[in-house]
Structures are given as C-alpha cells and as structure tokens.
C-alpha cells in the first residue's frame, strides 16, 4: 500500500511564561492510503498538537516545530511557507474539530462556508459552488439542503453542524481527513450517526483518516490501527486487534480497564488511571508514566525505555518488554480479553527510537 | 418586526414623558428664576413678567400646558431672548451641531476601528502598544483640555487650522477632533479586544484549515464579527457626542445647540433648558432604536422580539 503520510520524530514545543512546554516529544507514525489511524490518550497528551502540526495550524509563536519531518506524499511540509500551506490546507488535508457549536462562523451562512473551499481550491464560480454545496449537504445527510444552504449555524442542531463541518472538510476531496474528537461534544446516538457517516464517506471517497479520541470505545468501530499517546509520545501502536487483545503497555492496560464494555455493565466502577500526567515543561527523567505506573521498575525512574517491536505492526515503549524484566500480569479486566495473536514475533525486538 | 418597533415606540413615549416630567419639576425646585439678577426688579414688574409667561399659575396648570405644547412640538418662547421661540433656537442651532456631531462620529468610528484592528493584528508588538497608548491618552484627557491643546498647537502655534468660529470646513476640523477623541479611544479599545476575542475562536481555526489566506480570514471572518460590539456602542457614542458638544461648542465659539443650551442654563432660561432637554432625549432614544434595529439586521443570531421564532 502507498504511504500517504509519514511523520518522523516530530517535536513540537510552546514558549510560555512558565518555560518551554514540550507538547510533542518525538512522535513517529505513518498512514497508508484509505487507512484510518486512531490516536488515543488522555486529555493533554498531545493529540491535538500532533494533528494540528500536520497542517501547520498550531499558533506560531508560541508554538514551534522544533524537530522532525512530516512527509505528505513524500514531500516534507515542515519547511513550507504559509502561502504554500494554503494550497495544502482544505485541499490535501482537512480537519474536523471537536466542538461543532463553535467551529462554524456564526454570522456566515452555512452554504457560504462550504462555498469558500470550493471557490478557493476548485476554481468554481459562485453558482457552481452553491450547487455543489447543496449536493455536499445532501451527501452528509442533511435534509432539505436547498433550504439549509442559506441558513446560519444557529439554525442547525449540534449533530447537523458537525455534518456541515464534514461537508466543508470533504468539499475539495482531500487525501487526508483529520478528525479531532469529532463526536466528543455530541450525545451518544448522534455520535454513532456521525461515525457511521464518516465511515460511509471514507469508503466512497477513499480518504485516509486520522481519528483522534480519548475514548477507546469508539476506536474499534472506526480504526484500522491505533496509536496510544502519553505525555507527548506514542507509547504503543498496533492494529486494532493488537491493541485490544494483546496490549503490552501498562498505560494501554489502564485505558482498556477504564473503558465501559458490554461485560462490565455500564454502572460498574471504572478503574480510572490514578494520578495525573506529568508537567511537560519539565518532563521527568526516565519514563513519563513511571510515577503513575503500579508496575514501575527501578530503571523506569532513571532511563527512558526504548521502543520494542512485538509484531510487524505492533510497537510498545516499555521496559516490561525487556528480556530481564519481571513477568507482570495485566489487570483482570484486560487479562480477560487477552488472546494469542498469530502475527506476534517470538520475542520483542528493540527498535531504534522513532522506528 | 413591525410589532417590535411599535412596542419600542410605545416605550420611547413613556420614557419621554418621564423625562419631561422630571425636567419640569427639577426646574421648579432649582433656586432662582429667569428674572433674578443682581439688580432687584421692582415687585410690580416682576409680577407682570410672571403673568406674561404664565409663572403665576399653579404648578399643575403650568405642567399640563407644557405637556400639551410639547405634544404639538411647540417648546414655547424663550424667557431671555424676547423675540425668539425655543423652536427657533433649535432650528437654527441644531443643523450646526448635527454637522459637527456627524463629523466627530465619523472620525471616532473610522480612526477608532482602524487603530483597534491594527492593534489586534499586531498583538503585543509596537503598533499595538502605540495604538493603546493613544487610546489611553484619548480616554484620560478630557475633551476640553484636548480642545485647548489643539487650539494652542495646531491653530495658534502652527496656524494650520483657524482657532475658532464656524465658517468653513477647516473651522470644523479641530472641534470635531476634540469631540471625537474620547469615543475614538473607546472604540479603538473595544475593537481591539473584540478582534482578539474573535481571533481566538475555533471558527477562525476552521477558516485557516480551509486554506483561506490571512487577508480573507481577517476581512470576512474576523473584522465583520469583531465590529458587532462597536455597533452596540453607537448609542452611547451618540450620547457622548451630544454632551461633549456643550463644552466644545463653547470653547470654539460655534453657534450650535449645545452652546445655546449652556447659555440658557446660565440664564435659567426654563423653556429653553426644558425644550432642548426634551429634544436631545428624543434624538438619543431614536438613535438607540436605530442602533438596535441595525444590530438585528447585521447579526443573524438576533431575532428582534416579536418577529417569528426560529424552528
Ligand atoms: N498554544 C499553546 N500554548 C502552550 N501550550 C500549549 C498550547 N497548545 C497546547 N499546549 C500544550 O500542549 C499539550 C498537549 O495539548 P493537546 O495536544 O491539546 O492535548 P490533547 O489534544 O491530547 O488533549 C498540553 O500540555 C497543552 O498544555
Ligand atoms: S517503561 Fe516502566 S514506567 Fe514506563 S510503562 Fe513500562 S514499566 Fe511502566
Ligand atoms: Mg485535543
């Protein structure tokens, strides 16, 4: 499969009064054509900063891409100017944001907000753009698009606005769609509809998707692969099966254990991971998760673990995979679902930092 | 819409009635009368004058007569200027004040908005600091000091503008600038903070993520929305210009309504004070109504009450 996007050792920092916040610390992943990668992690783990860096949307200053490469179809976008980025944004890569209530301009007709993209990237005339906007609204499942196209965002419900955002994002047939927690602000039934719509459109348009969420529950339905982020790093990455049935990183265990599932009924106490993520102004020595990790070893407080490879597609960054590490058992909720996967290597292999 | 405007007009009439009543009674409580002066008048003459102007009648009769006259847009004679009615004074003074006021409003809005936009776009850089220093000066220096300052430097020292009087466009520049300086500074600060607020909004990021250029985003998504609060400020702005004109017209010797108003207060010229107060109130209430209607048209989220509800 053709690689659409390769992120190599991405580092992003923010200059603040309190010092330099290292929000993204050496993130690497790639994405194939038509594939969906989910990025999961607690709030503050750097998901939004990572994804916005891919479009160079982080505010600079105070933000800065301080290292690494972002290759889009083989071409690095990090050195590109704003003018060059304008041709990529909305056309090659587009984005859906978390809160549909605030991500549309309240004083501009919804149709006009879609037309802007078409006029900019497809050189359409106003009339053509308007007709296409109506078509797009119909495509994303908005009833009576001829009437809706002239309405303002406040006349749309939350779910409808997110549909309109999807119409905007897909207007110019981008190769990559980044959805940053697109359903977090919506209620559950609407959430499911939006996810369904995204999957449906992806099949029609063959778009690659980066799907960001802090909820592992929705991941299994939408993603091919999953990257788990913690404190600005990817700590585990693999196919959906590998992450759900053979997780190796204690942080992933924690996320899985705190996920409501069919077995544990909805009311059951969720085992939230204790503690809070570290301050990224001054990341701790050793592993960033050590302080919250009940399995932490002595070395965890001293030295950062390398990335281990468990299968062709499965990576985890934890000392527990080291041959000398003691065998530990994941929590009960996770152990119940563990399975032996056929693709797993005999032994985890150390890969170089950043793969 | 029609229903909304009808309702607002009703409230306006009610407010006006209260203003008229309040002015009427304040005038009566205030010590002195129009004919009080250093030289004591012989009592017969004073009684004659009072009879002539109706001041000998009981207060409720005076009050009622006054209300009836106002409804007929007749503010009565001036006590002091024997041959002129209050209507004459308004007809003569208002066009001058109106011209001056419009010029000041134009300067305040145009320069204020421009400064605010530049400051916000260059946030925390020197244009921002410069614009905000200008704004702080504008707000903290009272207009009469600004007026004397402008007169001294630009007129007397440099001779670019005439010092005073009302004869040509050049004569109107300094008073208009003096009158505009405080509201201009307010508008600059308002525009700046509202721009910064809009710029921090998610939909600006959306606009950027669509590949729109900075220029398009600034004009179509930022400035338009940032100016909405400035439109709301137009009501208070009108009030500020009106009251400001009292002093400025005196300082520059401009024969406007504001100058007449101040003179008549010194003269205790009851009918003029009351007439001009009522006239100003009407002006202010109408401009506030116009601003509200304009706002309802500009901001699609506002449904003027009485219009049909959204779905
Ligand atoms: N504009 C900014 N200035 C300073 N720090 C920022 C800024 N944006 C994000 N950060 C920091 O980067 C880290 C990652 O944030 P983010 O990517 O938004 O997390 P997530 O999307 O995973 O919840 C946080 O610690 C946050 O404080
Ligand atoms: S490296 Fe150590 S602290 Fe980090 S997750 Fe693995 S066991 Fe826990
Ligand atoms: Mg986020």
TrEMBL record, chain A:
It is a peripheral membrane protein. InterPro entries: AAA+_ATPase, ABC_Ni/Peptide_Import, ABC_transporter-like_ATP-bd, ABC_transporter-like_CS, Oligopep_ABC_C, P-loop_NTPase. GO terms for molecular function: ATP binding; ATP hydrolysis activity. Its main location: membrane. The keyword ATP-binding applies. It is found in: Cell membrane. Pfam families: ABC_tran, oligo_HPY. The keyword Oxidoreductase does not apply. Keywords: ATP-binding, Cell membrane, Membrane, Nucleotide-binding, Transport. Residues 7-256 form the ABC transporter domain. One of its GO terms (biological process) is peptide transport. GO terms for cellular component: plasma membrane. Transmembrane segments: none annotated. NCBIfam families: oligo_HPY. Belongs to the ABC transporter superfamily. This is Oligopeptide/dipeptide ABC transporter ATPase.
UniProtKB/TrEMBL annotation, chain B:
Its main location: membrane. One of its GO terms (cellular component) is plasma membrane. Residues 94-295 form the ABC transmembrane type-1 domain. PROSITE patterns: ABC_TM1. Gene3D superfamilies: MetI-like. It is found in: Cell membrane. GO terms for biological process: transmembrane transport. Keywords: Cell membrane, Membrane, Transmembrane, Transmembrane helix, Transport. The keyword Cell inner membrane does not apply. CDD domains: TM_PBP2. It comes from the Bacteria. Belongs to the binding-protein-dependent transport system permease family. PANTHER family: INNER MEMBRANE ABC TRANSPORTER, OLIGOPEPTIDE TRANSPORT SYSTEM PERMEASE PROTEIN OPPB. This is Oligopeptide ABC transporter permease. It comes from Cytobacillus firmus DS1.
């Amino acid at each position: 499969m053709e690689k659409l996007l390769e992120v190599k050792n991405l580092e992003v920092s923010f200059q603040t009064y309190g010092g330099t916040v290292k929000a993204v610390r050496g993130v690497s992943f790639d994405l194939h054509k038509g594939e969906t990668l989910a990025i999961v992690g607690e709030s503050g783990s750097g998901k939004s900063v990572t994804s916005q860096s891919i479009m160079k949307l982080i505010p600079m200053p105070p933000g800065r891409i301080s290292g690494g490469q972002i290759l889009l179809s083989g071409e690095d976008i990090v050195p590109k100017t704003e003018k060059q980025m304008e041709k990529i944004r909305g056309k090659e890569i587009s984005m859906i944001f978390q809160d549909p209530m605030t991500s549309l301009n309240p004083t501009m007709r919804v149709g006009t907000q879609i037309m802007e993209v078409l006029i900019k990237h497809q050189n359409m005339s106003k009339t053509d753009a308007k007709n296409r906007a109506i078509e797009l609204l119909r495509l994303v499942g908005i009833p009576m698009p001829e009437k809706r196209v002239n309405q303002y965002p406040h006349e749309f419900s939350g779910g409808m606005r997110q549909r309109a955002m999807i119409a905007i994002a897909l207007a110019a047939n981008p190769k990559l769609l980044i959805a940053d927690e697109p359903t977090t602000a919506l209620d559950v039934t609407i959430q499911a509809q939006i996810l369904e719509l995204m999957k449906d459109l992806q099949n029609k348009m063959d778009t690659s998707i980066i799907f960001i969420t802090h909820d592992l529950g929705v991941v299994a339905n939408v993603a091919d692969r999953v990257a788990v982020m913690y404190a600005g790093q990817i700590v585990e990455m693999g196919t959906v099966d590998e992450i759900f049935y053979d997780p190796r990183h204690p942080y992933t265990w924690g996320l899985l254990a705190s996920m409501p599932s069919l077995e544990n009924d909805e009311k059951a106490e969720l085992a939230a991971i204790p503690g809070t993520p570290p301050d990224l102004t001054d990341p701790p020595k050793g592993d960033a998760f050590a302080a919250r990790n009940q399995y932490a070893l002595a070395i965890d407080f001293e030295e950062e673990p390398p990335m281990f490879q468990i299968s062709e597609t499965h990576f985890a960054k934890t000392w527990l995979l080291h041959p000398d590490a003691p065998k530990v058992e994941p929590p009960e909720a996770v152990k119940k679902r563990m399975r032996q996967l056929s693709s797993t290597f005999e032994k985890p292999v150390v890969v170089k930092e950043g793969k | 819409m029609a229903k909304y405007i009808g309702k607002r007009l009703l409230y306006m009439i009610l407010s006006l009635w209260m203003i008229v009543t309040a002015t009427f009674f304040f005038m009566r409580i205030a010590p002195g009368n129009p004919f009080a002066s250093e030289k004591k008048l012989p009592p017969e003459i004073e009684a004659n004058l009072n009879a002539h102007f109706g001041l000998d009648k009981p207060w409720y009769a005076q009050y009622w007569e006054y209300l009836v006259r106002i409804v007929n847009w007749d503010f009565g004679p001036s006590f002091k200027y024997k041959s002129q009615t209050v209507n004459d004074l308004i007809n003569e003074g208002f066009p001058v004040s109106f011209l001056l006021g419009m010029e000041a409003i134009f300067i305040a809005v145009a320069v204020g908005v421009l400064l605010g936009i530049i400051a916000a776009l260059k946030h925390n850089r020197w244009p921002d600091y410069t614009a905000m220093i200008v704004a702080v000066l504008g707000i903290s220096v009272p207009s009469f000091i600004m007026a004397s300052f402008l007169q001294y430097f630009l007129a007397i020292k440099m001779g670019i503008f005439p010092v005073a009087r009302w004869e040509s466009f050049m004569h109107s520049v300094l008073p208009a600038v003096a009158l505009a300086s405080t509201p201009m500074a307010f508008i600059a600060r308002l525009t700046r903070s509202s721009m910064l607020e809009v710029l921090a909004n998610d939909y600006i990021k959306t606009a950027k993520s669509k590949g729109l250029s900075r220029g398009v985003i600034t004009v179509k998504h930022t400035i338009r929305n940032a100016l909405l609060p400035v439109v709301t400020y137009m009501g208070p702005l009108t009030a500020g210009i009106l009251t400001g004109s009292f002093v400025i017209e005196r300082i520059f010797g401009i024969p406007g309504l504001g100058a007449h108003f101040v003179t008549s207060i010194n003269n205790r010229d009851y009918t003029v004070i009351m007439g001009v107060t009522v006239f100003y109130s009407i002006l202010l209430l109408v401009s506030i109504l116009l601003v509200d209607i304009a706002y309802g048209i500009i901001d699609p989220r506002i449904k003027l009450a009485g219009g049909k509800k959204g779905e």
